[in-house]
Design a protein that fits this description.
- This protein has 357 residues and is mostly helical.
- Helix content is 74%, strand content 0%.
- The chain has 15 helices and no strands.
- The two termini are 42 Å apart.
């Protein structure tokens, strides 16, 4: 064995040296993180830093540097680089989760006290803004109808556009469609609202309604659906298509029976991301739906409330009761988006191809 090591390395291995390097125990990252947190808190307190965010940033830097130094001393430079990359990934993950968790916790703290059966089943009709009472039933109904109509418009168009770009698109037309989809991805929501306002209401003469807001929301939703669906369809192995063609299956049936079911999980996730984006939009519905305190079950006629518009309107009134109602509506809005995502994941799992493994 020593002769083989000498032959490959050009030098004899020192007596008693193991051919495998040292390894840190499994609890070392957790211990390093705990020590980094302690050092961050101590440094922050000693320096008089009032923000706990600064304490956390100090702890994150200590964790990254400490993980690298400890791995370099015990495992060698190669493993130290791997530890460095891993610790950076963990730090970035925690930094991304902190605002999300903080926002959720703060919204629950502020809004949980006002959310009850009355709040969910009543409107603001006849309620004085500075007095307790009232609810968001009319806003929930408006949000569900507006987002549902926008999804019915945007999801089929976006899905078929993505299928065209991946399966059929060639030449200048496909490039033009891709270019305009990319441009639409960055269109501000107020621009979509102004477009529908100019065309649907001013030029064609239709009235303000929830459906007008749905058209603006569908404009915002469509490019997200196209891009996410396009990427999912590209991940479907080409061998599946070729096997179907070899068996004489037509192209359209291959797409419907093989390609789309294979990518249904990612497609559903992309659609739900688009739904989550438009659910919180305020500018288009403010321009096209207006605000109302009464229940309007008809999205094709008259003003219709929505949860984002309700939150903005209540918070702008500026008293303790309206602040509480705004936070309660925000909590319900988050719950609705989370519920829709859970339903989408269940549907995607149910419709995805089953494996025998």
């Amino acid at each position: 064995m020593s002769t083989d090591v000498e032959h490959r390395t050009g030098a004899a291995a020192p007596v008693g040296q193991s051919l495998t390097g040292g390894r840190l125990p499994k609890w070392a990252p957790a211990a390093t993180a705990a020590a980094a947190i302690g050092i961050g808190c101590a440094v922050g307190a000693a320096a008089g830093l009032s923000s706990h965010i600064q304490w956390g940033l100090i702890a994150a830097m200590v964790f990254v540097v400490g993980s690298y130094a400890l791995a370099a001393a015990v495992e060698g430079p190669r493993q130290a680089k791997d530890r460095l990359a891993t610790s950076l990934v963990w730090v970035c993950f925690i930094l991304a989760m902190v605002p999300l968790v903080s926002l959720t916790v703060y919204t629950v703290q502020q809004g949980a006290g006002v959310v009850d059966a009355t709040f969910l089943s009543h409107s603001m009709n006849g309620v004085i803004s500075s007095e307790p009472g009232g609810g968001i039933y009319h806003a929930i109904l408006g949000t569900l109808e507006q987002v549902g109509l926008a999804t019915l418009i945007a999801a089929p168009i976006g899905l078929l556009t993505a299928v065209y770009l991946v399966e059929y698109g060639r030449g200048k037309l496909a490039k033009a469609v891709t270019f305009f989809v990319d441009v639409m991805t960055g269109v501000p929501s107020i621009v979509a609202g102004l477009f529908v306002l100019s065309f649907w209401i001013i030029i064609l003469g239709f009235s303000f309604s929830g459906f007008a807001g749905s058209m603006a929301l569908s404009i915002l939703m469509m490019p997200v659906v196209v891009r996410s669906t396009e990427e999912m369809l590209k991940l479907v192995p080409g061998e599946l298509r070729e096997a179907a063609y070899a068996l004489g299956v037509p192209k359209w049936k291959t797409i419907v029976r093989i390609v789309l079911p294979t990518a249904i999980g990612g497609i559903t996730t992309g659609i739900m991301l688009a739904v989550a984006r438009i659910t919180g939009e305020t500018a288009p519905v403010l321009l096209l739906c207006f605000t109302t305190d009464v229940i309007n079950t008809n999205p094709f006629q008259d003003a219709q409330e929505s949860l984002p518009l309700y939150i903005w309107h209540q918070y702008s009134l500026g008293n303790d009761q309206t602040y509480a109602r705004a936070w309660g509506a925000a909590l319900v809005l988050i719950a609705i988006v989370m519920g829709l995502n859970l339903v989408a994941r269940a549907v995607a799992r149910w419709r995805s191809p089953k494996s025998d493994r």
